[in-house]
């Protein structure tokens, strides 16, 4: 049966049906939620999908009831992640919502469902997904509590590389001052590796930073190249103070995305500080 576009090219009936069926196909443990009680079906509730995607329950309900506005590309991206859609499912969602499909270039910011499931199961340690240009696309609750909401930036500031070398005080405050010089060299080397691999947008970011940051120009001239694979670092939290953590880095198959997992040595004061993050919550946000 042919799709029938409506306002703004949206096929509201297909959009509502697709969202409902994908929601009902997910179990709570698929997205890191407890099973709960008095659940009439195995699928997720509308309010749970809304919480996973960062939108109001009323807005999401209207989409399923064929009476919402045309979703923006940002909303659709959030829905694709929240509903754990594959690339084919994501592209279908964009089409029936009246938008062109996002590029499937090697450096897509689409987070594979398997990576999202891993993130969902990391309840007691901070973790986040970043691109090879330093853009954070997904964080768990403890990562937000530790580092602030790094997904909220717009424009060039989405890249941690850009924030660091343009001396964004929030970015600089995350690292112990004694590690600033080493961090600058590490990220310049990482960015050079990205340009060498031909990562889309890497050369433009380099040119922007050369024009805006004398510090970047200095470390870039060293011609160091290395892909970030993890390191021990001291992060500074406004409530907990300095925390020494190991940052483990896992790459997706195309190496376009990285899962960063922050852990502390068991039995140390640093491990106790991480446990306190659950109490401190998300008081620290950008």
From TrEMBL:
<dbReference type="InterPro" id="IPR010982">
    <property type="entry name" value="Lambda_DNA-bd_dom_sf"/>
</dbReference>
<dbReference type="InterPro" id="IPR001387">
    <property type="entry name" value="Cro/C1-type_HTH"/>
</dbReference>
<protein>
    <submittedName>
        <fullName>Transcriptional regulator, XRE family</fullName>
    </submittedName>
</protein>
<dbReference type="InterPro" id="IPR041413">
    <property type="entry name" value="MLTR_LBD"/>
</dbReference>
<dbReference type="Pfam" id="PF13560">
    <property type="entry name" value="HTH_31"/>
</dbReference>
<dbReference type="Pfam" id="PF17765">
    <property type="entry name" value="MLTR_LBD"/>
</dbReference>
<feature type="domain" description="HTH cro/C1-type">
    <location>
        <begin position="42"/>
        <end position="90"/>
    </location>
</feature>
<dbReference type="GO" id="GO:0003677">
    <property type="term" value="F:DNA binding"/>
</dbReference>
